[in-house]
Amino acid sequence: MRFSWWLKGMRMRLHSNRRRAKYAAPAAELLEDKTLLSVTVSFLAGTGQLSIISDAGDAITVRDNAGNVEVLVNGTPDASLPPIASSSVKSLFIQGGDDPNAIDISGISAATFPNLTNIDVRGGNGNDTITGSSLADTLRGEDGNDMIT
Questions:
Q1: Roughly how many angstroms between the first and final C-alpha of the chain, as a whole number?
Q2: What separation in angstroms does the CA of 129 have from each of 1, 9, 40, 61, 122?
Q3: Is 86 helix (H, G, I), strand (E, B) or coil?
Q4: In the chain, is it the N or the C terminus that has fewer CB atoms within a 10 Å radius of its CB?
Q5: CB 48 within 8 Å of CB 90
Q6: For residue 38, what pLDDT is reported?
Q7: Residue 17 has what pLDDT?
Q8: DSSP label at residue 45
Q9: Where are the domains of the chain?
Q10: SS3 of 11, please?
């Protein structure tokens, strides 16, 4: 009889633990997919300057698409840029990030960007590939083993 109260207590503890385990809520939680942009594109209408700045290794292409500027970032058109007539761009500045970049402005010509008078492209650190336009470009590879054409 002495042990009956002890056995009863053990049985109650074991029984209550089993019941809790059955009703435990799942601990897994769905996480949201986050995409961090590594390229910032801006246009100052007053000066006509188009600026493209990367903080990572990116493929950046600038070209004309049906009379408007099109900036491709890693093969995808940059959606943050509103429609801008190619003829309104007077100055282009591109700064690559510290990782390897591929910057291509070969789609720029006097016919498609008639008012563009200043082009300054800087690859940043990393092994960059920069393809210039038919206009008078300033192309700087900066640090790294760069290829400029």
A1: 96
A2: 88, 75, 19, 12, 11
A3: helix
A4: N
A5: yes
A6: 83
A7: 54
A8: T
A9: 39-148
A10: helix
Burial classification of residue 102, based on how many CB atoms lie within 10 Å of its CB (0-12 exposed, 13-18 middle, 19 or more buried): middle
With H, G, I as helix, E, B as strand and everything else as coil, classify residue 18.
helix
User: Do 60 and 103 form a contact (C-beta atoms < 8 A)?
Assistant: yes
Q: How many helices (H) and strands (E) does the chain have?
A: 1, 11
- pLDDT by residue for the chain (149 residues), tens only, comes to 565 666 677 777 766 555 555 555 566 666 665 555 689 999 999 999 999 999 999 999 999 999 999 999 999 999 898 999 999 999 999 999 999 999 999 999 999 999 999 999 999 998 999 999 999 999 999 888 989 99
Predicted pLDDT of residue 97: 92
Six-digit token string for 87:
């003829």
Q: Which residues contact 94 (CB under 8 A, 6 or more apart)?
A: 51, 52, 53, 60, 62, 103, 105, 120, 121, 122
Alpha carbon 39 to chain centroid, angstroms: 5
- Is the overall model pTM greater than 0.90, yes or no? no
Going across the sheet that includes 39-44, the strands are 39-44, 49-54, 91-95, 118-122, 137-140
